Structure formats: C-alpha cells, structure tokens
Amino acid sequence: AQTVTQSQPEMSVQEAETVTLSCTYDTSESDYYLFWYKQPPSRQMILVIRQEAYKQQNATENRFSVNFQKAAKSFSLKISDSQLGDAAMYFCAYRSAGSNYQLIWGAGTKLIIKP
Amino acid sequence: NAGVTQTPKFQVLKTGQSMTLQCAQDMNHEYMSWYRQDPGMGLRLIHYSVGAGITDQGEVPNGYNVSRSTTEDFPLRLLSAAPSQTSVYFCASSRGTGETQYFGPGTRLLVL
Which of residues 26-55 of A touch B (CB under 8 A)? Predict the structure, then answer.
C-alpha cells in the first residue's frame, strides 16, 4: 500500500525568506500524481501545485516550486519570498494514475510566518 | 460558477441521530468523493463516485452511506451518529482520474 510521510510537524520562516517542506512517499507504481495542498485557518483545501511522475521537469507556480526526486521518492515544496498569507497547514498527497481513485495524504506540516 | 458547495457548515448531533451532509458541484465533474479530517492526520477517504449511479467505498466507509443520482450532487448520510464521527468532512470533485481535485469549504460535525 502507498504511504505519504511528512516528517516536519511544524516549520517557521521569516517573512520574505525561503522555506522548504519535505515529503516522502512509498509506492511500487511507476505512474502517479503528487500534489501539495494548502489549508489556511478557514479550513478550505487549496491546490498549490501538481506534479505528474512521468514528467522529469519540476512543477512551478509563481513563488511555489517542487523538487521531485522520483528515484528517492521525495517531493519537497519550496516557497520563495514567504508572505504572511502563506501561513497554513500544508499537505502532500499521492494518487495512482490507475483506476484507484484514492488520494493518499500525509499528516501535514504547519507553516508559521514570522513578520 | 460556485465550484463545490457543502451544507451545513457546522452541525451538532446527539449519539444515535441521523443526518445528511450535502455536497454539490457545478463543474460537470464525473468524480466526487467524501473525506474526513481528524486532528494530526491527513484526509481519509470515506466514499467516492466515478459517475451518476456509481459509488464505491474508500478507506473508512463504516457508518456512512452515499448515493449519486445526479452528476451534480453527492450527499453523505450518517445512519446513527457516534462520537467517533466527530470530524471535519470535505467533499471534493474532479474531472477525471489524476485530475486536480477541487474541495468544498468543509462541514464541521460534533457528535455528543
């Protein structure tokens, strides 16, 4: 069975600096999708970034980028120029590209932004 | 375009009561799902649907029922509420397998 591990329960960063959140996963599949979701205090789940395993190029979305290491089964999220609005829980998630519809979630990392 | 909507936002139930959490989407998505989120844990899949008339169980289906009579709606029914079902419930939809899931705002449920 697939698993997703986020080893950092909490991270803090100074405003305008860069922070990296870690995520590792375990799977025997070769084709899958990886996601980072943000959950602010409002509890709404917001997609931050999506990566397809067959793409070697790391996904980027403005200040957010990932370091996808398929062989190491690692999928870290880098947030550049951190802003106060980035404060939230961040969840890493995995989904098989096959017929299994289920998203497998990590336990989350709480990101604190220091002004 | 409202996206995914959920009602109610917050509900208090007594043990043994039943209720239905509503979920609707206006994006014509085939796939819909229900998750629960408990403190310190990621989301866990309760039930999902790959289209109208088709549903299947997720990781934690016990105590919940679903149906999908239309593409737009995917209600979640609690048959006999238990304190262990106190949680935040999220509904999500996506266009297809592997596509990005869009989440509703969540329903916070407290079972006394």
Answer: 33, 35, 37, 42-47, 50, 52
